[in-house]
Specification:
Layout lengths: L22 E3 L4 E3 L4 H5 L8 E3 L19 E3 L4 E3 L1 H4 L8 E4 L2 H102 L3 H6 L4 H5 L19 H8 L23 E2 L19 E9 L8 E6 L4 E6 L3 E6 L4 E6 L8 E4 L5 E5 L4 E6 L2 E7 L3 E8 L5 E7 L5 E7 L2 E6 L15 E5 L5 E5 L4 E5 L5 E5 L12 E6 L5 E5 L2 E5 L5 E5 L7 E6 L5 E5 L4 E8 L1
């Protein structure tokens, strides 16, 4: 019976048909008995790996050379290779270990070094948790103490108001009581006079009648009356937001990744390829972190080549305002449908846009030297500059306007804070009276949640951050792994964690509020990202300059 067609047949030696062979060649995939082992190995046209039957298929075949066994482990590539691969150009100058040596090496490293490092980090983390709990407890106590102090101040104000009111009441009552006493005294005299006259009328004594002198003329002059009005108290409307701001400032927490230095055990090597090292690229390259991000919406606007998309601002979580190199600002929904289009007052293209809390659109007009607000399609000029031209604008948490502007003569740049149309603050120089910003180009600007003012300066190839008072905090010129020349910042945004997001060529940098680089967003196929904004859910909107697209990106660091 043909054993290949017999289901009940047992395994047999490939050469002699002996049942129940005890050996197996993993390379040839053939079963062998002890007697045929030598004959099988005598075929020198290919390699063989004859193993006991129970250990069959335990060897690793080379994926590139099917007749070869992977007898080496490449340390650099972290793969098993055959001898032929090990001597190839692909693995030139690489280090290799025998098949099981790398297991022993990993075991030693895990037991003696890595585990202890993890234990050390775990201990530090536990200690940090304890300190963090204490810190939060202390902050809560400070907030409560400050609240009690505020209550005491309010109680003091109440007492002062009450005291003033009591004094007013006393003065008014004194006046009225004095008048009342005078009226009572005269009424008593009049009553006495009435009684006396009644008596005279009953007597027939001419001498007394002759002696009587009338005082009616005196009493006809009636006493003046005092009209006293009570004071009124008009309580001012309690502005909760203002109380919240005046009460204090709670900065955002920060989480920084601190790279732990790790000293690896020396790796024992059995074989080093000694081929020419001209293709050696083993120098260490720093690879920054990449944010977990994805594009969740893509809005195609009608801004395209020659009508480049410059700026984007969130009307709400479903609609966005945009502007480019034409004179119209356009409102789109997330499906890319045009909702509204508004032409600028001057007919110039708007340089930048931002939104008020009420949903009104604000735009800067560089050539007209104005900053304007759009209210129900009616455009009002809020600020008109002389000698300066506004580039970029943003609205602060206190409803002030921050305007980046350049001079038209001596080429200076400054940031000015306005309350309405009133100038409140100028930011232009550092403590050494040196300019903070380059004299040319746009200066994208945002206020961070911690009230820092962040300016993206393309010509300086830097992001300049000052505090609320205008004092320089830090300058960011790209992560340590990149050269300053390669950093080209455009739009800038901040999120609810006070992180700073910066558009740069084909990627987005993310910093913490202290200027520490956190990661990139570079997996969303961005093409010249220009304007940036963040919605209430911390989704990032990126305006692509040449493509005329707005990408809504969900990111997580």
């Amino acid at each position: 019976m043909d054993r290949q067609h017999c289901v009940q047949d047992v395994l047999r030696c490939h050469l002699c048909d002996t049942p129940h062979p005890s050996l197996h060649c993993d390379i040839c995939a053939e079963y062998l008995c002890e007697a045929c082992k030598g004959e099988h190995l005598s075929d020198l046209s290919k390699e063989h790996e004859v193993l006991p039957f129970r250990g069959r298929e335990s060897t690793i075949k080379c994926p590139k050379h099917s007749s070869k066994i992977c007898e080496r482990y490449c340390i650099q590539c972290a793969i098993h290779v055959c001898v032929e691969c090990a001597s190839s150009k692909e693995h030139r100058r690489h280090e290799f270990l025998d098949k099981k040596d790398f297991l022993h090496r990993d075991l030693q490293e895990l037991e003696n070094q890595i585990l202890s490092k993890y234990q050390e980090i775990a201990y530090k983390n536990s200690d940090q948790i304890a300190k963090l709990k204490k810190s939060y407890k202390d902050i809560k106590a400070a907030i409560n103490n400050h609240g009690e102090e505020l209550h005491r101040e309010i109680d003091s104000v109440v007492k002062k108001f009450t005291s003033n009111l009591n004094e007013m009441e006393s003065q008014c009552l004194d006046k009225l009581m004095s008048q009342e006493n005078e009226i009572t005294r005269k009424m008593s005299k009049i009553t006495q006079m009435i009684a006396y006259l009644r008596k005279l009328l009953t007597l027939n004594d001419d001498s007394l009648v002759s002696a009587y002198k009338s005082r009616n003329a005196e009493y006809r002059t009636l006493p003046s009356t005092l009209i006293v009005s009570s004071p009124s108290f008009t309580p001012k409307k309690i502005k909760k937001e203002q109380i919240y701001q005046e009460f204090g400032f709670l900065s955002a927490f920060s989480i920084k990744k601190e790279e732990q230095k790790y000293q690896q055990f020396p790796i024992p090597t059995k074989e080093v390829n000694t081929m020419d090292s001209s293709d050696d690229h083993s120098s260490e390259v720093h690879k920054p972190l990449v944010a977990v991000s994805k594009v969740i919406a893509e809005i195609n606007t009608d801004y395209a080549l020659y009508k480049e998309l410059r700026s984007v601002s969130c009307m709400n979580d479903e609609e966005i305002w945009t502007c480019g190199n034409n004179n119209k600002m356009k409102l789109y929904n997330l499906q890319g449908e045009l909702i509204k289009s508004i032409q600028t007052k001057s007919g110039n293209f708007p340089n930048d846009i931002t939104m008020t809390r009420k949903g009104d659109l604000i735009y800067s007009d560089y050539n007209d030297r104005t900053v304007n607000i759009v209210k129900k399609r009616h455009i009002e000029t809020v600020i008109r500059l002389r000698g300066w031209m506004p580039t970029n604008v943003c609205l602060t948490s206190s409803d002030d306007l921050l305007i980046a502007m350049v001079s038209d003569r001596d080429k200076q740049t400054r940031v000015v804070r306005y309350s309405g149309s009133t100038e409140k603050q100028r930011i232009q120089y550092n403590d050494k009276e040196q300019p903070l910003y380059s004299p040319y180009g746009e200066k994208f600007i945002r206020e961070n949640k911690n009230l820092d003012i962040c300016v993206s300066d393309f010509y300086a190839k830097a992001v300049v951050v000052v505090n609320r008072e205008g004092k320089l905090k830090f300058t960011y010129s790209g992560p340590p792994s990149t050269s300053k020349k390669s950093f080209k910042p455009y739009g800038i945004a901040t999120d609810c964690w006070s992180r700073i997001l910066i558009a740069d060529s084909h990627t987005i940098h993310i910093l913490d509020q202290g200027g520490q680089f956190l990661c990139f967003i570079n997996n969303c196929h961005l093409d010249w990202p220009y304007g940036l904004c963040v919605d209430t859910n911390d989704n990032l909107y990126v305006a692509e300059y040449f493509e005329g697209k707005v990408k809504k990106i969900q990111y997580k660091t």
